[in-house]
Amino acid sequence: MTATLPAPLADWFTARGWSPRRHQLEMLEVGRAGRHGLLVAATGAGKTLAGFLPTLTELIEAPTTGLHTLYVSPLKALAVDVQRNLITPIEEMGLDIRVETRTGDTPSDRKARQRIRPPQILLTTPESLSLLLSYPDSFLMFDGLKTIVVDEVHAFATGKRGDLLSLCMARLQRLAPALRRVALSATVADADGYRAWIAPDGDIDQVALVEGEPGADPNITILLPEGRVPWSGHSGRYAAEQVMAEIELHKTSIIFCNTRSLAELIFQDLWKVNAMGLPIGIHHGSLSLEARRKVEGAMAAGRLRGLVATASLDLGVDWGDVDCVVQMGAPKGSSRLLQRIGRSNHRLDEPSEAVLVPGNRFEYLEARAALDAVEAGELDPDIFRPGGLDVLAQHIMACACAAPFTQGAMLDEIRSALPYSALTDETFERVLGFIRDGGYALKAYDKFKRLTQDSDGSWRVSHPRFVAQHRLNAGIIVEATMLTVRFKNGRSLGKVEEGFAATLSPGDTFFFAGMSLEVMGVDTEDLLVRATARPARIPTYGGARMPLSTNLAERVRGFLWNRSEWARFPNDVREWLEIQALRSRLPEPGQLLVETFPREGRHYMVIYSFEGWNAHQSLGMLITRRMETQGLKPLGFVSNDYALACYALDPITDPASLLSPDILEDEFVDWVQTSALLKRAFREVAVIGGLVERQHPGKRKTGKQVTFSTDLIYDVLRKYEPGHLLLQAAWADARARMTDVGRLASLLDRAVETMVHVDLPRLSPLAVPVLTLIGRERVATGLADDALLVEAEVLAAEAMRLD
User: Fold this and answer.
1) Looking at the DSSP assignment, which residues form a beta bridge with residue 759?
2) pLDDT digits (tens, 9 = 90+) for 184-236
3) 658 pLDDT above the threshold of 80
4) How far apart are CA 181 and CA 197, in angstroms?
5) Pairing verdict, β 121-124 and 69-72
6) E strand or H helix that includes residue 326
7) Considering only Cβ atoms within 10 Å of each terminal Cβ, which end of the chain, N or C, has fewer?
8) With bands split at pLDDT 50, 70 and 90, how would you rate the model's confidence at 802?
9) CA torsion, points 505, 510, 513, 518, in degrees to nearest 10?
10) 702 burial via Cβ count (<10 Å: 0-12, 13-18, 19+)
11) Which residues of 575-591 are buried (b: 16+ CB within 10 A; e: fewer)?
């Protein structure tokens, strides 16, 4: 039986000339049956409305003044956009339903009022939800909660924010046992995995799977330069005039960049060739709230023709006038590409239009692989893993801030969250012990004694100051310490990393918020600037690089070996591969090609493993250490997503000895423990776990102060308590996330059996893109691109000779 809409909703659809889609009515049926649900539907299929239909129906048929539905979003911009798009139909139907957002950008007075008088629909993020649960009045606020809607669930479930959200849902289910959970996504490869994640106790049978109708096939093209596909680079900057021509041809275009620095650079490049003076904006997470809201409002009102953006806008944001998406550089994954191109023609029955701008020849192959993957409906794999212990410690402390708890009840509640379903009694005891007093090596210090166990066995917060400390410092996203970029009149433009600001002196210039700025000085936590017309540097931002997905890596490897595919490639890309096959060889699927050759007094080894930049960076560190041990006099290494190049003063004659699996047991452990890698990981888990606070009332610690505090504690624990809970969590992070150790281990396991070593008299064509990166270290920022293009041409001419 198909669910029917209440009259106000049915009339609203009719007035617009619309009919509810099948999957929207199915989600309403699921809601009326009181079941949990996962909706997987194409971008533009009306997923958000489908998620809210049961809520609107219930509020029409049985109005309430209390909190009915929580909507959780991965992005602040998405929450604001959903609020805007939800309020319109509510107002048009004349419904007495309040919809509000609660994020880090929400004013404190509104947050306080929301806890006393919440709206019927509250749009929030995992971090803000966790903070709400830390208040005693959360028991009253949430006891009537009927539904939680998790939008873009794929952006949460496999990371630490997903761990926190899963724990929050477990707590909400305890406060409101009849709570219904709903998850929405357009890019889910493992639907059952997400059903288990969203379900209480991981029981997928409790979660109905609703699949939407397939949308129109996207229209995706690869933009080729007017000359040749570049040998080097990853930004696509060479195509600024061609991208500007696309902007001129369309109503509104979003130009996606993979990093904030690149977004600033591309914005400047486009502005220089914007002969028509079209309105263009820029949007990324480091810009001020005022700047982001201004741009979002201009886009929603249709006042911009182009917007340069990062991942801050690649999920769910619906601006109807966007009819073209441009991806600068390679997309790194088919799921990410689908999300981004879905911003164009955000309707199910109209094809999304997108243009990919590869930065170099390998990126051309990657772009072609991404198009093929999208056409085949192939999504990037979803990798679920056990929940982080630092996140668990933060959540338990939040619950304790709200009210005392008993150990058994808390453990049962936590185990109902899938990431913690296998949590052992012993590990739980260790987490409690850590929150209680910091652990054996720290228990002498009162500042770490956050929990006290009473005579009846219940746990409570030891002192009210720890409650205030938790609420000031809670959060999962640990960014590098930032300084506010501010004009002398007080106007804020956003934030840059403290490390970048430390490299600046008065008179230096840099691009930010689409402007060239001159540094006037640093005032405590502010970087004071003024606008200038002088040439500028580019700010550098932290954060992990987007890894090349395993699916795309396999497709690129297939292109190299399968000559029948080459007819689809531009002439210069085809010639590149043909001469590589003549001068060296191309690896078969499953093979690991290793080339060695001399050049200008150095000896090079290039490994074509396609395991992504993160894994290659780690492998480069390990191999150069082993080369040092073997007396090869290593000079350094460079890597991209496709290859790793190491270079030394002596010839590398036995690559197999450098790639044996025991490198992960010997050099890896030694390297991680003696490098800054583990300390950086510990810094993050110490902040998340609540051991080190970033903020005090009215004052925020500088990055140097946080680093000093965490490094001091790290050294103490390494010496006196090497098995400490947070050291264990830091190791897990360092191995799994910071080094891509899973892909690294896979590469080393197959290296001996599959390696093909080719010793060459000079570099090969396939080596040119990665060797060009060596020049990047020797060239000033402002001159890098021109100088590297010249160097790439020199390398290419040498590599492509057939004599």
Assistant:
1) 596
2) 988 787 889 999 999 999 899 999 999 988 767 778 889 887 767 888 776 78
3) yes
4) 11
5) parallel
6) strand 322-328
7) C
8) confident
9) 50
10) middle
11) ebbebbeebbbbbeeeb
Which of 482-486, 521-525, 675-679, 767-771 ranks highest by mean pLDDT?
767-771
Contact 252, 281 (CB under 8 A): no
Q: How far apart are CA 613 and CA 616, in angstroms?
A: 5
Q: Which two tokens stand for residue 693?
A: 């606070």
User: Between residues 648 and 47, which one has the greater pLDDT?
Assistant: 648
Q: Find all residues with CB under 8 Å of 447, minimum gap 6, and list them.
A: none
Task: Specify the pLDDT at position 198.
Answer: 95
Per the listing, tokens 């909400």 go with: 172
The pLDDT value given to residue 443? 83
Q: Which residues of 394-425 are buried (b: 16+ CB within 10 A; e: fewer)?
A: bbbbbbbbbeebeeeebbebbbbbbbbeebee
- Please name the residues in contact with 536: beta carbons below 8 A apart, sequence gap of 6 or more: 268, 509, 510, 511, 516, 517
**CA R_g for the chain:** 27
Residue 725: which of 691, 679, 772, 776 has the closest Cα?
Answer: 691
CA dist 210 → 25, 28, 40, 41, 205 (Å): 10, 11, 6, 8, 13
Report which of residues 310 and 789 the model is more confident about: 310
What is the residue whose two structure tokens read 């890896």?
Answer: 668
Residue 543, pLDDT score: 41
What's the full length of the chain, in residues? 803
Does the structure show a pLDDT above 60 at 102? yes
Structure tokens at 433: 């012990």
Supply the angle between the helices 703-720 and 677-688 in degrees, to the nearest 10. 100
**pLDDT-based confidence at residue 455 (cuts at 50, 70, 90):** very high
Q: In what order do the strands lie in the sheet with 482-487?
A: 492-497, 482-487, 526-531, 515-523, 509-512
Residue 703 has pLDDT above 80, yes or no: no
Which ranges constitute the DSSP H helices of 186-331? 191-198, 240-249, 260-272, 289-300
Three state DSSP letters for 578-612: HHHHHHCCCCCCCCEEEEEEEECCEEEEEEECCCC
Q: Which residue has the higher pLDDT, 607 or 477?
A: 607
Whole-prediction pTM: 0.78
Rounded average pLDDT over 528-553? 68
The 3-state DSSP class for residue 639 equals strand
Segment 281-295 shows an average pLDDT of 83
CB burial class (10 A; 0-12, 13-18, 19+) of residue 310? buried
How many other C-beta atoms can be found within 10 angstroms of the C-beta atom of residue 707?
Answer: 18
Helix 768-776 crosses helix 784-800 at what angle (to 10 degrees)?
150
How many Cα neighbours within 13 Å face the side chain of 803? 2
Q: Which residue has the tokens 């001020």?
A: 288
Between CA 197 and CA 174 the distance in angstroms is: 17
One-letter-per-residue 3-state SS of 429-462: HHHHHHHHHCCCCCCCCHHHCCEEECCCCCEEEC
Domains with residue ranges and CATH for the chain: 7-211 (3.40.50.300), 482-531 (no CATH)
Mean pLDDT of the region 518-546 = 70
Residue 740, C-beta contacts closer than 8 angstroms, at least 6 positions apart: 547, 611, 612, 614, 615, 618
Interhelix angle 361-375/550-561, rounded to 10 degrees, is 110
Residue 549 DSSP class: P
For residue 476, CA distances in Å to 161, 163, 522, 691 come to 6, 10, 28, 14
3-state secondary structure 463-507: CHHHHHHHHHHCCCCCCCCEEEEEECCCCEEEEEEHHHHCCCCCC
Which segment of 165-174, 415-424, 477-486, 679-688 scores lowest on mean pLDDT? 477-486
* Structure confidence by residue, pLDDT tens digits, 57-83: 999 999 999 999 999 987 666 667 777
> Smallest Cα–Cα separation from 769: which of 234, 254, 255, 215?
234
